[in-house]
Structure formats: structure tokens, C-alpha cells
């Protein structure tokens, strides 16, 4: 997760995450495709005007999911049940009801992805962990463990790329995917264990005990604009549901 200089990046991560979870919960209760589409458009508008998104960024992030959304829509629409038949051939049976259900499910999934992207693209990982400690009362042991685990992901990626380049330079070619997986996974796993032990020793040397009554380099607070964003977002979503239904 990386933040930017947008308005959403200045919000408290826990409140922002809670707001998006509430919207996702409301999306699960919606059964009308038009309502689901409007709620998804709201997420896009928030990302563009408050999250610092560009259209190219949005298309690049959502394009990998497009085929999956189309597949879900087709499975729900072509094999659903209903009385008002639109098209029927062999075992395919499109009805008004099945098309509405397919659109609702696929747009709901698209909304989940977009609201999740709205959070991850405007949230700093360290501030999110600090917010879990201060606002959600998460134990520092779990919080710093999560932070260290997230920090390992880019390290594993860079080490994996280095190993692939080293094997390529040495002329190694492995067609068997299982053997290739074992060849890469075992060194990465052993390096991960060594690094985790070093981190644990370094934290113990620096006096980390996991106690809550400790000082923090960064702290997070909930201010007025956080509650304003929460209430405004819920009000608009509920208004869309009431007005369109």
C-alpha cells in the first residue's frame, strides 16, 4: 500500500477502512443493477476528485479483472432462471431476471474491487498499522508482526528476480514447473527464516516487549474530517439506494 498527496491520504486509515466496509456491506444488500452501478460510479468519482486517480490508472488497475467480471455475468445470465425469456439456444437461456442478477453480481464485485483499491492506493502502510494500534486497540505484537510481514513482500520479489537472472546467466532451463518451484521456493523460504530471526533479535535488543504503554514515533488521531467523510459517504450511498429503489 502506498499513499499520495490526495485528500483521502490525509484521512485516518481505520475510519476510511470502516467507511468502505460499510459501503461494501450495503452493496451486498442491493439487488438492483442500476443501484449497484451508481454506487460503483460514486467510488470512481471519489477516486478521481478526492483520491488523486487518473483515468489511465483506473483502467490499468481494473483491466485485469474485466475478463473475470464478464465471465461471472455470463454464467449468471446464461444459466439462470426466469420467466421473461430474452434468448434461448441449446442449454443457454437468457431471461430478464437472470441478466439482472448477473449484472448485479458482477457490478457488486467491481464495486468491492474499486472501494478496496480506493483504500490501498491512498493509505500508507505504516500509518495503517499505527491506526490499528491506536484506534482499533490491536496488540503491538500483532501489529508490528503484520508490518514486518508486509515489508517482506517486496524483498521476496526482488530476491526472486535476482535468482531468476542468476539461473538465466548460468544457462539453467527447467521445463518441469514443480521442480522449478522447489528450486526457487526453498532458498526463499530459508532466507525468510534467517531474516525473521534477525528482525526478532533486533527488536528484542531495542527493548521491544509488545507492551501497550510505550512511546511511538508516529501516532494517528481521529479528527472532524474523518467523521465527515464517513457520514457523507454513507449518506450518499443510502440516498442512492432509497431514491433509485
Structure, described:
The protein has about 240 residues and is mainly alpha-helical. It has two domains: about 10-130 and about 220-245, no CATH class; about 145-205, no CATH class. It has eight helices and two strands. The chain has helices at about 15-30, 35-50, 55-80, 95-120, 125-135, 140-170, 175-205, 225-245, and strands at about 85-90, 90-95. A two-stranded antiparallel ribbon has the order 1-2. β1 (about 85-90) and β2 form a beta hairpin. α1 packs parallel to α8 and α6 (about 140-170) crosses α7 (about 175-205). The two termini are about 35 Å apart. The mean pLDDT is about 85.
Average per-residue pLDDT, rounded, comes to 84
**Which consecutive residue ranges, at least 5 long each, have pLDDT under 50?**
none
Strand content: under 5%
Helical/strand content category: mainly alpha
User: What summary fits the major beta sheet?
Assistant: 2 strands, antiparallel
What does the overall shape look like?
flat
Number of strands: 2
How far apart the termini lie comes to 36 Å
- The ordered string of helix (H) and strand (E) elements is HHHEEHHHHH
Number of helical regions:
8
Number of structural units classed as domains:
2
Helical residues, percent: over 70%
* Lateral strand order in the biggest sheet: 1-2
What radius of gyration results from the CA coordinates?
A: 23 Å
In short:
The protein has 245 residues and is mainly alpha-helical. Helices cover 71% and strands 4% of the residues.
Amino acid at each position: 500500500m502506498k499513499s499520495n498527496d490526495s485528500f483521502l491520504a490525509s484521512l485516518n486509515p481505520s475510519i476510511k477502512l470502516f467507511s468502505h466496509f460499510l459501503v461494501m456491506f450495503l452493496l451486498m444488500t442491493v439487488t438492483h443493477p442500476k443501484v449497484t452501478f451508481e454506487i460503483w460510479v460514486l467510488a470512481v468519482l471519489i477516486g478521481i476528485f478526492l483520491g488523486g486517480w487518473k483515468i489511465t490508472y483506473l483502467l490499468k488497475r481494473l483491466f485485469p479483472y474485466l475478463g473475470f467480471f464478464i465471465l461471472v455475468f455470463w454464467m449468471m445470465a446464461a444459466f439462470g432462471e426466469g420467466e421473461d425469456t430474452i434468448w434461448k439456444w441449446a442449454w443457454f437461456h437468457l431471461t430478464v431476471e437472470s441478466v439482472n442478477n448477473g449484472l448485479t453480481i458482477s457490478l457488486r464485485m467491481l464495486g468491492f474491487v474499486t472501494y478496496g483499491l480506493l483504500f490501498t492506493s491512498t493509505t500508507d502502510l505504516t500509518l495503517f498499522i499505527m491506526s490499528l494500534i491506536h484506534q482499533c486497540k490491536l496488540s503491538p505484537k500483532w501489529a508490528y508482526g503484520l508490518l514486518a510481514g508486509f515489508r517482506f513482500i517486496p524483498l521476496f520479489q526482488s530476491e526472486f528476480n535476482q535468482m531468476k537472472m542468476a539461473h538465466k546467466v548460468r544457462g539453467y532451463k527447467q521445463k518441469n514447473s514443480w521442480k522449478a518451484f522447489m528450486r526457487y521456493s526453498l532458498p526463499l523460504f530459508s532466507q525468510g527464516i534467517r531474516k525473521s530471526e534477525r528482525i526478532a533479535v533486533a527488536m528484542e535488543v531495542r527493548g521491544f516487549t509488545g507492551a501497550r504503554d510505550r512511546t511511538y514515533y508516529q501516532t494517528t488521531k481521529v479528527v472532524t474530517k474523518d467523521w465527515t467523510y464517513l457520514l457523507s459517504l454513507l449518506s450518499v450511498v443510502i440516498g442512492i439506494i432509497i431514491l433509485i429503489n
